[in-house]
Design brief:
It contains ten helices and five strands. With about 300 residues, the protein is mainly alpha-helical.
């Protein structure tokens, strides 16, 4: 029932755990980031069926893009190392463009990551819940979840502790479950890359536009009555529409079995993302040093 799902979501949102090893802090939500990267590289590599190093390279570009983008938009003394999904999208485009210089086909690589993106986002939203980012605005007590952990962004940045808020990361997970199932099925049937990529951009853009209307992060800019990310979501959906009009070439149906090199790439990316999004230096004030405030 909805009440059971709401209670489970609330428990997860207040499940922050951290361990200190000298100047280093390890936060439990890094596991979700590691799972996102590992499964993402695995799915993208199996969907592409070749070029595992290029798949890992795009993964690394996603990480750099997400960190650079969020630092530019949201970086502050409170947020020394934020990450943003749209920065990851920009990173993915840059990664595929540079991989093309090495002879890797662009559209198949992009479409393969489109198949993986909903799964990456589902894992990522679990981290969002614990971190308190991407949180919703006030909701009814029957629907909203209450953030109480002192480390959560909801508590120490938004000042909305103990108030029922829309569980927007959960909304995102639900829509990505549907989008992911559709795209993986299309890839299994051998649908054209332009269709898979275009549909991801359209469906994900629409879902994010609606989800963003329930979100209430204080650092999000509002432009002409819409959140900045709603404008970006609209642009993304429009790009998806254009993508579906490009000449379509058929693809072989199904997914390739993972090679040892792809499995190794997935493990390396999982460790890299787990460290970047789960390990920090709480006593430092340097850019990118802290994921969250220290005591």
């Amino acid at each position: 029932s909805m009440a059971v799902i709401r209670r489970a979501t609330e428990r997860l949102a207040n499940s922050w755990r951290e361990w200190h090893l000298g100047p280093v802090r390890v936060i439990n939500y890094g596991l979700y980031a590691a799972a996102a990267a590992g499964t993402g590289v695995l799915i993208a590599g199996m969907a592409l069926g070749a070029h595992p190093i290029a798949v890992a390279w795009v993964g690394a570009c996603i990480l750099v893009g997400a960190g650079t983008w969020a630092q530019w938009l949201e970086g502050s003394p409170h947020l020394l190392r934020p990450f943003g999904w749209y920065g990851g999208v920009v990173g993915a485009v840059a990664g595929t463009a540079t991989a093309a210089l090495a002879g890797v086909p662009v559209l198949p690589l992009m479409a393969s990551y489109a198949c993986a993106a909903p799964v990456i986002q589902i894992w990522g939203r679990l981290r969002c819940l614990v971190n308190g980012c991407c949180h919703g605005g006030p909701a009814s007590a029957a629907l909203g979840i209450r953030y109480t952990h002192r480390r959560s962004r909801v508590t120490h940045i938004a000042g909305l502790a103990n108030q029922p808020l829309h569980p927007t990361p959960l909304y995102s997970m639900a829509t990505n479950l549907v989008i992911g199932a559709a795209l993986l099925r299309l890839r299994a049937l051998g649908a054209a890359d332009v269709l898979v990529l275009g549909l991801y951009l359209i469906l994900s853009g629409i879902a994010r536009f609606v989800e963003e209307s329930y979100r209430a992060e204080p650092q999000t800019r509002i432009i002409a009555g819409l959140h900045l990310y709603q404008w970006l979501a609209a642009v993304q959906a429009a790009a998806g529409i254009v993508t579906t009009t490009l000449p379509a070439t058929p693809r072989a149906a199904g997914f390739a079995a993972p090679t040892p090199l792809l499995l190794a790439s997935a493990v390396v990316m999982a460790l890299l993302f787990g460290a970047a999004l789960g390990v920090d230096f709480p006593r430092s004030n340097r850019p990118y040093s802290r994921l969250a405030d220290a005591d």
